[in-house]
Amino acid sequence: MPEDLIYRPDRGLDRSQIGDLLTCEWIARRQNLVLTGSTGTGKTWIACALGMQAARSGRSVLYHRASLLLEALEIAHADGSISRLRGLLAKAELLIIDDFGLTPLTARSKSDLLELLDARLGTGSTVVAGQLPIKSWHDFIADPALADAILDRLIHSAHKVQLKGESMRKFTTRGSRSLSLVLHALLLTLALVNTLALRGQLAGGSWSATQRIVVNTLVGCG
Ligand SMILES: Nc1ncnc2c1ncn2[C@@H]1O[C@H](COP(=O)(O)OP(=O)(O)OP(=O)(O)O)[C@@H](O)[C@H]1O
Ligand SMILES: [Mg+2]
Fold first, then answer.
1. Domain of residue 10, residue span
2. pLDDT of residue 212
3. Pocket-testing residue among 35, 36, 45, ligand 1, by greatest number of atoms within 8 A of Cβ
4. Residue 73: closest CA among 60, 90, 59, 61
5. Do residues 129 and 44 make contact, with C-beta atoms less than 8 angstroms apart?
6. In the prediction, which pLDDT does 216 show?
7. Which residues of the chain are under the pLDDT cut of 50?
8. How far apart are the C-alpha atoms of 58 and 104, rounded to whole Å?
9. Could you write out the DSSP letters of every residue in 1-21?
10. What's the half-sphere exposure (Cβ side, CA atoms, 13 Å) at 180?
11. Does 11 contact ligand 1 (Cβ within 6 A)?
12. Is 42's C-beta closer than 6 angstroms to any atom of ligand 1?
């Protein structure tokens, strides 16, 4: 929840920058956000807080882990629903792609990512969160032409938050760690529900009230 964010300047969390992001002005301007930092520094936490804030202001928000999103696109190629899935992903006012850089990208995933970012250019905001520093993303994509095209669409005019320090999980008490585990399990479950809801929407191809609720619940669980 945005109210629960703990600001620690030593962790790279600037209260005024986060305050600006919480106004959702950047989403109105269709700008992107890149969140980086090592494990446990709070990328998912911040992404979900911003997603929650966007949902509260009535915006459509989708949260996906990169691997599951790219897998859903891969399946959609196979079953012929790729155009509709792409259309639906392009429509979300805020799309959060978490854990980018954890799983190697296939050739198909790289071009899917490019198509997705291209479709969203000027029409929606995308948050990408990952452990790798931005300077390593080009090598991670490992295809110079596609990497240039992807990064140009994503990074150009993107806000950047680079989190520092040790994992905050180390400092959580046993009780709060258990709560955090429950919340993360819920997050992953809802990500799956969200994927299913997305796929269930393919026939209609539009945002239903149910989908908004699923999405709003999803971003509220952090
Ligand atoms: N700004 C914050 N305010 C309050 N608690 C936080 C904040 N950032 C992180 N935490 C706490 O630290 C835990 C770990 O944060 P989070 O899961 O967001 O890390 P992460 O950077 O996404 O890690 P990973 O790369 O492993 O996914 C959270 O469950 C939460 O308890
Ligand atoms: Mg995370």
1. 2-220
2. 43
3. 45
4. 90
5. yes
6. 42
7. 202-222
8. 34
9. -GGGPPP-GGGT--HHHHHHH
10. 15
11. no
12. yes
Cα separation, 124 vs 117, whole angstroms: 9
Q: Relative to the alpha carbon of 15, which ligand is closest?
A: 1
Question: Candidates 39, 44, 65: which one to mutate for ligand 1, based on the most atoms within 8 Å of Cβ?
Answer: 44
d(C-alpha 192, C-alpha 184), whole Å: 12
Q: Which residues are within 5 Å of ligand 2 (an ion), measured at CB? A: 44
- State residue 182's pLDDT score: 53
Amino acid at 95: L
For position 35, which CATH number holds? Answer: 3.40.50.300
Please tell me the total count of domains within the chain. 1
What's the longest Cα–Cα distance across the chain? 48
Q: Which of 199, 206, 203 is nearest to 75 (CA)?
A: 199
Which atom of ligand 1 is the closest one to the Cα of 131?
25
Ligand 1 contacts CB of residue 180 (under 6 A): yes
Using an 8 Å Cβ cutoff, are 216 and 61 in contact?
Answer: yes
Amino acid at 98: D
- The pTM of the full predicted model, rounded to 2 decimals, is 0.82
Tens digit of each residue's pLDDT (9 = 90 or more) over 134-187:
999 999 999 999 999 999 999 987 999 999 988 887 766 555 555 555 555 555
